[in-house]
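Deliverable D5.2: sample structural annotation.
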Amino acid sequence: MLFSAKRGTRTGKNGSCYGGNGRYALSWFQWWEICNPNQSWVGFKNALIQRFQPVLMADPFELLLALKQQKSVSEFITQFERFAGVIKGLDEQHLMKIFSNGLQEEIRAELKLYKTINLSKIMNQVHTIEGKNIAITNVVQDYRDIGGGGVFLFKEEQRN
C-alpha cells in the first residue's frame, strides 16, 4: 500500500467523502487505492495528474510554445511555470525566448529595451513594465474623466 488515508472523514449527502475545501480528492484517492492494489508512486502521480490536471497529460513542450499572455503578467507566469516545470533539459536561454514570445506585444516590445540576464530577472522586469503601463492608462483615463480632450499633454508641455 502506497499510503493510507485517515478513515474518519466527513461525508456528503450522497455518501462521498470530501475535505474541508469541498473537493472530492479524498474519495477519488480511496477509489484509486481500491482499484490499484499494486501501487507505485509513478502510477499514483500519473493518475492524479490525469484526474485533476488532464491538460498536463498533453505534450508540455507543445503547450509551452503555444502559451500566450491573455490577462495579467502574474497569470501568464503561473501558467508558464506550470508547463515549463514538467519539461526537463531545456536551457535557460530557450526558456527566456519562449517566455518573451508569449508576452503581450506592448510588454514584449518594452522588454527588448532592457538587458536580460536570466529568466527570473525577466519575470521581475515584466511585472514592473505591466505596473507602469497600468499607471499610465489610469493617468490618461483620469485626464479624460476631468474633461481633457483627445490629446494628453504632460506637465512640461503644458507650460510652453
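Annotation notes: Residues 1-57 form one domain. The chain has two domains: 1-57, 59-159.
The annotation will be released with the project's public dataset once the embargo ends.
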